[in-house]
Amino acid sequence: MSSSTDERATDSAEQATEQSSAANDRSRRRAVRHAGPPVGETEAPKPVVLAKPADANAAPEAEKVSTAKVASPAPDAPKQRRPLKSLLAWGVTAVVVVALVVAAVVLLLDQQSAQERDDRRQAFVDTARQTVLNLTTIHPETAKEDVDRIIAGASGQFLEEFQGREDPFVGVVRDANVTTEGQVVEAGVENGSETSISANVLVAARTMVSSKEQPEPSPRDFRMRVTVSDVDGKLTASKVEFVP
């Protein structure tokens, strides 16, 4: 009886010991999991997980890196393109400036040529007007001076018609007491150019004539063609004729 009781007590003690050992093992395993690996042991490296494109922090950095790589040109490109663009810009500017200068010079020459042409034509007209005024304005008191003024502006055929006849003409004007007051109505160049040495000018004139026999002035209308010639740099009337 006592032997059987001892065996049960022994079995119970062994079971209690085994349960206590198992409980201690479980407690150590829990402690190991919570506390990490034992001192002196190296923990196995954890696998690295790459961030996904949806990650809010990784996406902007990736965009910045890619943008910087795309936007940065080759190191030698700016040095080659900038001088070429500068040369092209200077070339275009130079062409434009030269064209403007040439256009301005041409325009200035055209204006000068037109002004010279107009001045020349006007000089022909003025000479013809003055010749007709001299012919149609004569007074008995100043007949000699009036004739001298006509001869001073004459040349060629027109001068020949007066030379040697000045005195008879002055005598007739004084004896008949003829007075004429001329007025040029219109005058213009019939033909000729700014480079010509002569030009025909048509002159329409009216003169008021009075005399001893007709004291009351009466109008007379004339239409004359005056040939104006350049003689030694001076414009003179070389021919005067009446036209219908």
From TrEMBL:
The keyword Membrane applies. Keywords: Membrane, Transmembrane, Transmembrane helix. Its main location: membrane. Residues 1-81 are annotated as: Disordered. Residues 12-24, 51-60 have a biased composition (Low complexity). It is found in: Membrane. Residues 1-11 have a biased composition (Basic and acidic residues). The chain crosses the membrane at residues 87-109. This is Mce-associated membrane protein.
